[in-house]
Design brief:
Layout (H helix, E strand, L loop, with lengths): L8 H8 L8 E5 L11 E5 L4 H15 L2 E8 L13 H11 L5 E4 L1 H11 L5 E5 L9 E7 L4 H16 L4
Parallel strand pairs: 1-5, 2-5, 3-4
Antiparallel strand pairs: 1-6, 3-6
């Protein structure tokens, strides 16, 4: 399916959300985002606006119950000037509205790409490619467990370490 245009990207997302879990990624990409060659990466052309697709993905993740998304945006987006990329200011406002309630992680583009590439060695990635023509506008959702928090994981690991120290492992 990689690179194939699917008429209803919403349907494909609906099919994949129940399959995806911790360490899978969903990317809403701009039109210049490259088609990647790893077998676990599926690229679909989405016919909606960037903000619309981001909002739909965010809502689908939030409604799933079994996953939540760590949301990454390119650090560079903050510095793209309107004179070089007309519409970037409006897009930043639309993105803020689309991701209302999300904690955004802003990281340099190359860092988030490296994380995505590393994850794609083992885990599946869905890329929804939009007609957006403004640089550094892609949004990356790294999926995490929706019913088990990082704090709960840390507490459990501490209990395991304590049991191991007492010889109860």
């Amino acid at each position: 399916m990689s690179g194939e245009a699917i008429n209803d990207w919403r349907e494909r997302l609906r099919e994949l959300i129940p399959l995806f879990g911790h360490r899978n990624w969903i990317v809403v990409a701009d039109s210049a985002y490259p088609a990647q060659s790893r077998p676990g990466i599926e690229t679909i052309v989405a016919d909606g606006s960037q903000a619309e697709v981001v909002r739909h993905v965010f809502d689908a993740i939030m409604a799933s119950g079994h996953v939540r998304g760590k949301v990454y945006v390119d650090r560079e987006l903050e510095f793209v000037p309107e004179e070089d990329a007309p519409g970037v200011g409006a897009y930043r406002d639309e993105l803020k509205a689309a991701l209302k309630g999300a904690h955004l992680h802003t990281v340099p583009h190359e860092q988030v790409i490296a994380r995505l590439d590393e994850a794609a060695e083992v885990f599946r990635v869905l890329i929804l490619k939009t007609p957006m023509a403004i640089p550094y506008t892609s949004v990356f959702f790294e999926l995490d467990c929706g019913y088990w928090s990082a704090d709960a994981e840390e507490r459990m690991r501490e209990r395991i370490a304590a049991a191991h120290a007492k010889g109860q492992s």
